[in-house]
Amino acid sequence: MTETLIKGLYREGEAIVDAKAPQGPLEKRWEQRKFDARLVNPANRRKLSVIVVGTGLAGGAGAASLGEMGYNVKAFFYQDSARRAHSIAAQGGINAAKNYKNDNDSTYRLFYDTIKGGDFRARESNVYRLAEVSANIIDQCVAQGVPFAREYGGLLDNRSFGGVQVSRTFYARGQTGQQLLIGAYQALMRQAKAGTVELFSRHEMVDLIVIDGRARGIIARDMVTGEVETHIADAVVIASGGYGNVFFLSTNAMGCNGSAVWRAHRRGAFFGNPCYTQIHPTCIPQHGSSQSKLTLMSESLRNDGRIWVPKKAEDTKKDPRDIPEEDRDYYLERIYPSFGNLVPRDIASRQAKNMCDEGRGVGPEIDGVARGVYLDFAEPIQRMGKAQVSAKYGNLFDMYERITGENPYEVPMRIYPAVHYTMGGLWVDYDLQSTIPGLFVAGEANFSDHGANRLGASALMQGLADGYFVLPNTINDYLADGPFPAVDAENTELKAIQKENTDRIAHFMSNDGNRSVDSFHKELGQIMWEYCGMERTEEGLKKAIGMIRALREDFWKNVRVTGKADELNQALEKAGRVADFFELGELMCIDALHREESCGGHFRAESQTEEGEALRHDDKFAYVAAWEFAGDGEAPVLHKEDLNYEFVHMKQRSYK
Ligand SMILES: Cc1cc2nc3c(=O)[nH]c(=O)nc-3n(C[C@H](O)[C@H](O)[C@H](O)COP(=O)(O)OP(=O)(O)OC[C@H]3O[C@@H](n4cnc5c(N)ncnc54)[C@H](O)[C@@H]3O)c2cc1C
């Protein structure tokens, strides 16, 4: 480990290697790993227990699959029903390399698009596996009865998402996540009925139990009674989703938080690429300063909708319908003629920001700048007819009208980028195991296969790949060494973890502060958006770290948590989550500061091409940044995992 602090903020430790990564021909690697992974026979599975935190697509699919295999599963989630996990909000679709459109798609092309889309910052082996199992996911979901959209002849329909030139996105109108989640939920409930899965609704994991270096369970708070419970198992799976709400305003559900992954990080799990955040280009613009949520308009709308701003700044206040064609700038079609409106999200977002920074944004001004661009359906309505447009996108149009009061069939929608997804997450090896033996991480919660930028419709694919296909084949290799020794209630490590959590709750309840949790969260979010959002600079990130530290200190002194600990108490729940967001936000800024290059969603203003595109520095930064927690007040330690490209040639991304 480096003796002196780098940039005054972090140290560098030993390189980290993915010891489970198979070698050999790319297309044989997953098969090889499955064969090499040890098995647990059915009779022994009944003696082993697994805790799954999260019942979204990743956790729901994982818990159902592990239950079906015969393990004893306990599934935890903070909603009242597993069906309410944030995955329900996914609108647009799920990718799979089935080549139904006969447009020259293949497993290799999905692999290639994903590696390129992620700006060459993901592992080749993982991404190939993801592309390989993508087709199985669709078969699995169809068998469950998921009502994917079909063509007139009855075959499954596809549409396109950003960063690709084929149609490989399967969808269920604008409710794909909901329908997929119902499929996973049915599978989960079948196991609940069979007795292999026990469900713990309204339970929040507040800590990870690590004993003798292994993950052995969780501390969970019953959110209704306030009871702090200890649950022990042979292995733990965290599938708790993304941490985009560190920005306060995001398209994520209000409850989404980073606490499960952050608490595990504090117990020893390395955090991979925390600064990789996805800003989605098509969201309904913020309309005021008291707003607490942003709404996504699905990327699928970019299949037909055309994005533009007025050519002249003086036209921005006009009714868009009065602006003639020759005065409109369809800037994505102009700058990227090959991909047009379907460039990847990071690129579309940055260009929207550029247009608004130039003074050509539309809609109401916030802090003196109109932050909106048009997404126009006039041409598709003319071409396909209103009924056809409505059949494809009707529920999205209705949602837009309910929120804005404007009818998108008549007037172009206004959209602007917003925080949407986090590519960073807990570091995992090829088996999805973290640096803590026995702790596995699935779905958006892990540092994922998407590199520095996720392509649209690939999160659902990854969550379900992890839950239905990867975990059930890799976790056995670990559990084959179990059952692990029983954990005594008097175990000193356990007692220390329990005490830390009850003390933390006691602190919040007794702190006689004067500021609400939400007000701290909002201020933290503003700092993150301003300095660690769409564009980052060395100066801004340093400033943000100082501001976050000062605000965090104030938080611990002055936060006011009302109510009681032994009852339903949302202020207490939020206090714990915001406390974790402070630490996570700081690590995001440190990671963004150390990565002196631009790649995907991480745009450092100092590192751009002459045309304003992200400029990578592969000679210095072709690695995964895996951060180790070194203790409160201590500088985090960076471990680098080299990314070796054997099959794809790394080059400057081009969508022109
Ligand atoms: C508006 C929107 C639309 C999207 N549309 C698409 C799309 O069309 N296609 C696509 O591929 N992706 C889409 N995404 C991304 C995708 O929805 C998510 O990445 C994905 O659903 C995450 O699934 P998950 O299972 O990892 O986590 P989630 O679905 O977020 O589930 C997290 C689970 O963890 C539980 N949990 C969290 N913390 C705790 C804790 N401390 N204790 C106990 N339980 C906990 C929750 O209760 C929940 O059950 C969209 C995202 C958004 C925001």
UniProtKB/TrEMBL annotation:
One of its GO terms (molecular function) is steroid dehydrogenase activity, acting on the CH-CH group of donors. It is a peripheral membrane protein. GO terms for cellular component: plasma membrane. It holds the Pfam family FAD_binding_2. Coiled coil: none annotated. GO terms for biological process: anaerobic respiration. Residues 50-460 form the FAD-dependent oxidoreductase 2 FAD-binding domain. The active site is at 345 (proton acceptor). Residues 521-655 form the Fumarate reductase/succinate dehydrogenase flavoprotein-like C-terminal domain. Its cofactor is FAD. It comes from the Bacteria. It is found in: Cell membrane. Keywords: Cell membrane, Electron transport, FAD, Flavoprotein, Membrane, Oxidoreductase, Transport. Its EC number is 1.3.5.1. It catalyses: a quinone + succinate = fumarate + a quinol. Belongs to the FAD-dependent oxidoreductase 2 family. FRD/SDH subfamily. This is succinate dehydrogenase. It comes from Arcanobacterium bovis.
